[in-house]
Write a structure and sequence with these properties.
With 304 residues, the protein is of the alpha+beta class. 57% of the residues lie in helices and 13% in strands. Among the domains are: 90 residues; 98 residues, Ribosomal Protein L22, Chain A. Helix 5 packs antiparallel against helix 6.
């Protein structure tokens, strides 16, 4: 129904449609004035909705734009691809790396001379080898073209890094040795100091143990260790453990140095015998004697 004629529903419907169209046109004009000039026609490809789940929907770049980017990145026909930027003077770079490696090798040699340990000496040798590689790479770079010159400069840089790492390892070893030397305080060794250790109930006979201990009596600790290490008798293992126990007692209880000790006295005494029996013929039994021994060792400083 229309407000002019409530009894005519068709006329009321037409009037409502016309009023809605006028309102829509008026709204469009207002929006156009606010937004300014609009492009007459949009790109058809941009207006097309992208299918859900496609690469264009995920990245926001459609196929045509991707083709444009790809064509821009590809080099022109007959044109070589652009190389990564390298420093202007690769020969100077190689020479600098060789000098850096040589300086690191010199520092490693100095630290090895100060420390005198196997670790420092091995690190110094590694640094010298790396310095030689860097020097060889720098010399080879002078005879190579530009591309090969850059590669040789990188090889010299890697060798210089290896030399510095080896020099740092040698310096660490030298610092450890320096710290130990500072901690060591010269203390007078008491006259007549003796350090002993004893092992009881060792499962070997005293006679067999004496055959081994006779070889190390009066020797210093280092020589005794070598003798026991290459002795094939079974009792040598027990004597070796007892010697290490005595050295540990001297180092821990009296703050002595194990290599500065000598074996003052060593002996093996008989221990209790374990009696066992073995059945023999005609119902008899034979006794089995499992002998034991007590081992003793006494150390003293070499100066005393």
């Amino acid at each position: 129904m229309s407000p002019t004629n409530p009894n005519d529903p068709d006329k009321g419907k037409a009037a409502a449609e016309e009023a809605a169209k006028e309102a829509a046109e008026l709204k469009a004009q207002v929006e156009a004035q606010e937004a300014g000039e609009q492009p007459e026609a949009a790109d058809a490809s941009a207006a097309e909705p992208q299918a859900e789940g496609t690469a264009a929907a995920e990245t926001g770049i459609d196929k045509s734009a991707a083709d444009v980017f790809a064509s821009a990145e590809e080099p022109a026909e007959g044109q070589e691809p652009a190389e990564a930027e390298e420093p202007a003077d690769q020969q100077e770079r190689a020479d600098q790396e060789a000098a850096r490696a040589a300086a690191a090798a010199a520092e490693a040699d100095k630290a090895a001379d100060e420390a005198g340990t196997e670790t420092a000496i091995a690190a110094a040798a590694e640094a010298d080898e790396a310095a030689e590689k860097a020097e060889a790479a720098a010399e080879a770079a002078a005879e190579k073209p530009k591309k090969e010159k850059a590669r040789k400069a990188r090889e010299a840089e890697q060798a210089a890094d290896q030399a510095e790492e080896a020099a740092e390892e040698a310096k660490k070893s030298a610092r450890r040795v320096r710290g130990r030397r500072q901690e060591e305080v010269a203390k007078p060794v008491p006259v007549g100091l003796k350090v002993s250790a004893q092992a009881k109930y060792v499962r070997t006979s005293a006679r067999k143990a004496r055959l081994v201990c006779d070889h190390i009596r009066g020797k210093d600790v280092t020589e005794a260790r070598a003798i026991l290490a290459f002795t094939t008798r079974g009792a040598a293992e027990a004597w070796s453990k007892l010697l290490e126990s005595a050295v540990a007692n001297a180092e821990h209880n009296h703050e002595l140095i194990g290599e500065d000790l000598r074996i003052l006295n060593v002996h093996a005494d008989e221990g209790p015998t374990l009696k066992r029996y073995r059945p023999r013929a005609m119902g008899r039994a034979t006794r089995i004697r499992k002998r034991t021994s007590h081992l003793s060792i006494t150390l003293s400083p070499k100066e005393s």
